[in-house]
UniProtKB/TrEMBL annotation:
Highest classification ranks of the organism: Eukaryota, Viridiplantae, Chlorophyta, Chloropicophyceae, Chloropicales
Name of this protein: Subunit 9 of NADH dehydrogenase [ubiquinone] 1 alpha subcomplex
InterPro entries, per the entry: ComplexI_NDUFA9_subunit, Epimerase_deHydtase, NAD(P)-bd_dom_sf
GO MF terms, alphabetically ordered: protein-containing complex binding
GO cellular component: mitochondrion
Residues in NAD-dependent epimerase/dehydratase domain copies: 48-254
Length: 368
């Protein structure tokens, strides 16, 4: 529950800059200047960001702060976990407050003074308290309903490539259900589907590097033939800012994917080469992988805390790999926004993986 003292601070922080008017159709701020005048400028955007403490959230908050926006961040973690967000905007422009995600009235409180609401909530695997249905569907619906009732002008719902009612993976099925629920409550919502995102804090390349360095093997389910188009995190955030500038993006669905398609096996090879480690991949039939995870899954369903395991070893993850995570070009994307996405196998997008080298960032092992 929200503390009373925090509520008073939250209310005072919103006294400045709260507005329902958002003039960004031509990339203009409230004063008529170009949107993106810097952290000391006033963009006229008051944005509530749910899920701001996650991987993508920190980049979204930083971009909003860079264009002079006030950002309201409800959080469920410890205060220390939000410290990096406090410095991303001008003094008083980043407003953080603890909240109960299961309380619809708490959601209403955080959107009533905003003209932009962004939902970044999501999970890689289920826990006893937070199932995929609860996070991807129920919470998404609560946010969309609250935004609609508050008269919010823009709602952004972040989903993922692969979301489908026919998907084998439960995560992807509930992501689709969440999109439907959002559209029901807020028809003009902008839905942004992302391919697997890479960056310093990602859970794709870092997970492969972790398994390569710390585990006996890297599992390649059914030969690692699943195809995907990993996308660089800064390209996704750049696209988000572009959609914010134009009214025509309301009610649209975007799909953002990288320019290159890789199989899971090729991604593992890329990481092994980058961190200079010998191949440690092991081909495992998906049926065997699910069988190996079944004791953990059964235990997880009966206890209120996460059972320690790596996401790449769970049945949900194996189910996700049953379908290729590539875009078919039927939705809007980077090209429609004038953005050329970066390759993830060279330059800055892959740079963070080098820190996994056993001899350090500059040296690494002697393996070639």
């Amino acid at each position: 529950m929200v503390r009373s003292q925090g509520s008073r601070l939250f209310t005072r922080a919103l006294c400045y800059g709260a507005t329902k008017t958002l003039a960004v159709d031509q990339g203009l701020n409230r004063a008529g200047g170009a949107l993106g005048g810097g952290r000391h400028s006033v963009s006229g955007v008051t944005a509530t960001v749910f899920g701001a403490t996650g991987f993508l959230g920190r980049y979204v908050v930083n971009e909003l702060g860079k264009i002079g926006s006030q950002v309201i961040i409800p959080y469920r973690c410890t205060e220390q976990d939000t410290a990096h967000l406090r410095v991303m905007g001008d003094l008083g422009q980043i407003v953080l407050d603890p909240y109960d995600a299961n309380d619809p009235s708490a959601v209403n409180k955080y959107v009533q003074d905003s003209n932009v609401v962004i939902n970044l909530l999501g999970r890689d695997r289920e826990t006893w308290k937070h199932s995929f249905e609860k996070v991807n569907v129920d919470m998404a619906a609560n946010i969309a309903k609250a935004a609609s009732e508050a008269g919010v002008e823009r709602l952004y719902h972040f989903s993922c490539v692969g979301a489908s009612p026919d998907a084998i993976g439960k995560k992807f099925r509930t992501k689709h259900e969440g999109e439907v629920a959002v559209r029901e409550h807020f028809p003009d919502a902008t839905i942004m589907r992302m391919a697997p995102v890479v960056g310093v804090e990602d859970r794709l390349l870092n997970s492969i590097a972790f398994m390569t360095r710390r585990m006996p093997y890297v599992p390649l389910y059914d030969g690692g033939e699943t195809k995907m188009q990993p996308v660089y995190v800064l390209d996704v955030v750049k696209a988000f800012v572009e959609t914010l500038k134009h009214e025509g993006t309301k009610g649209q669905t975007f799909e953002f994917a990288g320019p290159e398609t890789y199989t899971m096996k090729e991604l593992v090879t890329l990481v092994e080469k980058t961190i200079r480690e010998p191949s440690g991949s092991l081909n495992i039939p998906s049926s065997l992988g699910k069988l190996m995870d079944s004791p953990r899954a059964a235990l997880q369903a009966s206890i209120p805390f996460p059972v320690p395991t790596h996401t790449m070893l769970t049945s949900d993850y194996i189910d996700e790999l049953e379908s290729d995570l590539v875009v078919d070009g039927s939705s809007l994307g980077f090209e429609d926004l004038g953005i050329e996405p970066q390759r993830i196998d060279q330059g800055v997008p892959i740079e963070h993986v080098r820190f996994w080298r056993s001899g350090g960032y500059d040296f690494g092992s002697t393996f070639e």
